[in-house]
Amino acid sequence: MIKRQNRVAMATLLLFLILFISTGSVLAAMPSFGSGEGVYLLDPDTGDAFAKQNEDSRYNPASTTKLMTALVAMDYINNRLSEGVTVGEEITQIDADSSVADLAVGDTYTWEQLLYGLLLPSGNDAAMTIAVNIGRLAQNDPALETNAALDVFVGLMNKKAGDLGLTKTHFANPHGLVDANHYTTPKEMAQIAGAAFGVSTINTVASTPSYTCVSGNGQAHEWENSNILIHQTVSEISSSQVAAMNLTGTENPYYNPNAKGGKTGYDEAAGRCLVFSGQSGEMHLVGVIFKASDQRGIYSQADGALDTALKDYSHILWSDGQSPYVKTMVSFASILDGFSISASTKGEAASTVLTTAKDSYSVQVKWDSSLLSEKGNHVRILAPITEGQQIGTLDVYSGSTYIKGIPLYTDRAMSPLGWVDYLIMGGVLLLVVLLIVVLVRHRRKKWNQAVYNMRRAEAGYHFEGIKEAEMEAPKEPPVEDEGLAPLPKSFLDMEAAESEGRPSMPLRARLGGKTRYRLKRIRRK
């Protein structure tokens, strides 16, 4: 009994190892995360997640907030990056121990320099100067009071969150210092980061290892990027981070050649926060890790996530977005709208999948049941459809497991049958009936004329309009006292007459391009 149990246990272990090695599971390949951490690793090209944990839970984003600050600012300064900005009293409102870019009241910087001071050393002073001056620009009021301008900017941050479709995010300041009304989720921060890194200026700034500049008053600055994933050597990292992480030697153990932009954040309540991005070939990653316990751990996690996501995953392209994905016949649609409808995706539609599991993925069209009902090889329209309306989804499956639905849109309007259609169909039916009546009357008229001509011919008359030479003379003289056979009254009678040897309808011949009748007397035998 014990031996049998051992064999079962060994077989189970062997099966587990085979499955573990052959599938290359995302959970096995990705680094482990603490249970309290919020994680979202996003492929911005497809919207799919490489990995996620507590993705919809509320977290304090700390200084990763500054990505939204930069994103809002670019709406106003994209074409004026070289313009000068004066630092005001707003920088005195920040805590003395917060991270700063060492700006001074009354000094001047360009908008571009302020963006570097915001994102590289994570300057709260730069965040305040940007926010107040953008608030004044938005209100077109250079004299707007500091706190009023700050309120305007925070309102713009929340409006931008709404524009991005974020429902679990709210900002209370431009720098990320702790506030009960300042929060987001890992998933929504990944969406903010994806939008921010999609702006070329922000992406360039956030990807720069270090930056030097001189202010309008001659103050020199050298700012190092606090995201150490992009620093190849320890000497490139700020001395405060080197000391905090106890880094030694020359090479940075957390350097990843595929890492691009990023933004760090920290306070006691928020814990260690990191937003990072990377690219290798066609694959992109935007990652968010909230509330990690230490710097070494969070960079180790980010480094491992970059390696796994960019090397072990690939894309499956379902639709190019240029041509309709599906076209089908539609029943009970208005005659004026045609009898087919097509649907396509908005832009390319793809899935991010573990390369070794590509063959397990498939797609299936699912129509919106309130608009279209599937009936075999066609659909029946149930309600009016407008141009550009979503009419279904392209559902993605891994085996039998549902993964996601990609919206399908139509490029034309279509309505069910209405009273106009019934009027049109009634009119067409009436025309068909009238046409049948006309044809029947025409055939009857021709038949009556033929019968009349035949009777005249049987009575020995030549029929008007036919040359005498065209008449076939009887080959034998008529037999005396033999009367003529009765004329047929219908085509059935004619067939019967033919079978009995009695006279039938005259033969028709085409002479000179016209139809003539060749008549002959028929004797009764």
UniProtKB/TrEMBL annotation:
Belongs to the peptidase S11 family. It comes from Eubacterium aggregans. Substrate binds at residue 263. GO terms for molecular function: serine-type D-Ala-D-Ala carboxypeptidase activity. Its EC number is 3.4.16.4. This is serine-type D-Ala-D-Ala carboxypeptidase. Pfam families: PBP5_C, Peptidase_S11. Residues 355-413 form the Peptidase S11 D-Ala-D-Ala carboxypeptidase A C-terminal domain. The active site is at 63 (acyl-ester intermediate), 66 (proton acceptor), 122. It catalyses: Preferential cleavage: (Ac)2-L-Lys-D-Ala-|-D-Ala. Also transpeptidation of peptidyl-alanyl moieties that are N-acyl substituents of D-alanine. Removes C-terminal D-alanyl residues from sugar-peptide cell wall precursors.
